[in-house]
Amino acid sequence: MAKIRHNNYIDTVVEISRNASEKGVVDLYTEDDHFTGRHIKVNGKDLCHFGTTGYLGLEQDIRIKKAAVDAIMRYGTQFPLSKTFISHSAYSELEDKLEKMYGYPVVVTKNSTLGHLGTIPTVVRDEDAIILDQQVHWSVQNSCQIARTRGIPVEMIKHNNMEMLEAKIKDLSSVADKIWYFADGVYSMYGDEAPIGRLKELSAKYPQLCLYYDDVHGMSWVGKNGTGYVISQYGELPQNVIVFTTLSKTFGASGATMVTANKDFYTRVKRFGGPLTFSAQLEPSSVAAAIASADIHLSDEIYDMQKELADKVAYCNACLAKTDLPLIEENNCPVFYIGTGAPAVGYNFVKKLMDAGFYVNMGVFPAVAVKRTGVRFTVSRHNQKEDIKALVEAMDRLYPVALAEETTTKNQVRKTFGLPLLDKGQSAPIKMPASFRVSVYKSTDELPAKEWDDIFKGRNVFDFAGLQFLEQAFDASQAPEHQWDFRFVLIRDKADKIVLATFLTKTLWKDDMLAPASVSMALEKKRLSDPLYHSSQVLAMGSLFTEGDHLYLDQEHPDKDAILNLFFQTLTKIDEELQPDVIALRDFTLSDDFLKAHCDGQGYVKAALPDSCVMEDLSWSTQDDYIQRLSSKSRKHFRQDIEKYTDRVQAEVTNDLCAEELSKAYSLYRNVWDKNFDMNTFAYPQSVFEVMNADSNWEFIKMYPAGGEKSPERLIGVMFSYKNLNLTYVPSLIGLDYDYSDEFSVYRQMLFQTVLRARALDFKRIDFGFSASFEKRKVGAESIQKIAYIQAKDNFAMEMMEVVQNETISS
């Protein structure tokens, strides 16, 4: 089969960040000619600044600023030489003071990103293994890619899931010397913390376990000498721990530090830490600023600062407790996250807060799952209590307005984040427009057949009869991956006219279905022992069996915006009922900007699908006429790749297969499925084909070598075709004997016989379906680029596919 386009993680990130930029919540610039820390000017408006990561406000401390200025005047703007050869004058003083702070020798790095790049490949040996927390900082994850190129196993667990971590440790214990777990001390989005108590227990239970913490958001505002959250939880660092802290952010200078009690780890990084060895060193101004900050950290003044900030954090928590704002994590951290759910609500809320005089950050993908968008704000010593009180009051006032304008409720957001629900009186349900009526059916028994066919006749295998086939083939008697839960949605206007219609199925999808073939091949090895490995419950528009325009929307209706909003509200209710991991809306064209605008705001990510192939012109009368209507390029391919083989095969059409034929046909289908990693799905069981065989709307094009008997054992190809109301011929599945591919060009012959059969039946269209578009164009099909919109409750599956893909590339 021909290769198809696959989805790229970076493309997804760029697409979503572009949306956020267009909404005016990222890619902003301040307009101040100086900073105070308390306010910033954006778009001509002075805003209370609740977005800093300098929680103690030390970046504005006059002592630190004077030290930096003085160093520039004495030493210049930089000392451009590798630290391996010689360090500038102030470095040794900084290292001495940091060692006093931590009680351990430290390695100073230019920033934490370069520090991770220098440390991780140096301390992790080829015989070790790596486990990443799903939310550990990007700079840590990126640095682990270097280890992967050396063949070091890299796994990932769901955020702070200690049961999953222990299972991974057990799996790796027999193949790895040390097992490294990488986590943040304090996570930058929600402000939640690593479960250090549980990690201590696992360290005691598994001596192989080593712990690597990125604690840049835990620095200075907590701990003895402001040495950070992680060290405050340990007191004395054990030999299996490395901690990265920062000299920027709350510390008020620049650079980062690696801290460990393990002399071997320290020596390896100190002597050869990749970019730490070969890159330029910290500028004199940064070193001098860090020395001045270290003096503050070594004095009792740091505890006064910590207490002042802690009082303001506690005050903010107290203010929030008087509201029903959905605070995702309540603790003593100066990071706060208010969930909004859909990005449209987040954009709206952030804009309203900026208009009200407050600058806050927006938590967006990939830092959080798209549907878990929210407003992230921080409290620093710069903020005054009246600022905090005013912010919380503004949020409490504007949050329900933003929700209502984007047709979302407080409880819908709370369900998204797993928070306790409010009483109904506190979160009023959205009122459905009185001019429309929504019907959701669970079975075709309830569905108005004629009206459905008036809309969907000729569309793949989802006219009314096609839906009945799908219900029978994928019922509760099947294995879990083939049990489909159906929902049929109709929206009518006040004249009782259907203005929107679609159907949805909930079933298991493989997480790698649209990933590169190399990813699927790697995962299939693990599925030999765990068939449902890395699969998710997906609520999909249409079904895995069908392809095409599953959504009917009256594009001429004056209220089509309201209709589509009503559909998304209905989809939310179905989502709450069925609880899938993912929602997938498909198959749309790139030009559908109207739908894209709605999907972007609702938290859906665009994903590429394989090209869809259709043939619309079946009006020719002879084979020569048909050939002449092909493009010149396709005619050439037809002559070379199809026509010269036609005498070597013989085809026959039947409405039913005998038991032996069905068994052979199914084995041929499995041949194709076994090779098709480009769109990786669960193989259909033979029972689906038995239902197909008993349905008069299905027929089978059988192919044999020419000149012999047409017995089941001589079958070399089968096309499983659906006849949609004498309008559309749908070759849904194919079975092939690859031993005959070169001799008979079986696949291309099957495509040609499909064209001949559709014309003989006087059908108007052929739905050739996804993939192999190059081969299908040879017989006159047109390929159409299709996309889906995906909404995942969690980023884990997507991030895991990225981990596996990187692993296959490196190997």
Automatic annotation (TrEMBL):
Keyword Glycoprotein: no
Cofactor(s) demanded: pyridoxal 5'-phosphate
Record domain Aminotransferase class I/classII large: where: 54-393
Lineage: superkingdom: Bacteria
Entries under Pfam families matching the protein: Acetyltransf_6, Aminotran_1_2
Keyword line: Aminotransferase, Transferase
InterPro entries the UniProt entry points to: Acyl_CoA_acyltransferase (IPR016181), Aminotransferase_I/II_large (IPR004839), AON_synthase_class-II (IPR050087), BioF2-like_GNAT_dom (IPR038740), PyrdxlP-dep_Trfase (IPR015424), PyrdxlP-dep_Trfase_major (IPR015421), PyrdxlP-dep_Trfase_small (IPR015422)
Domain BioF2-like acetyltransferase: 632-776
Keyword Transport: no
GO MF terms held by the record: transaminase activity
Protein name (record): Aminotransferase class I/II-fold pyridoxal phosphate-dependent enzyme
Naturally occurring in which organism (per UniProt): Marinoscillum luteum
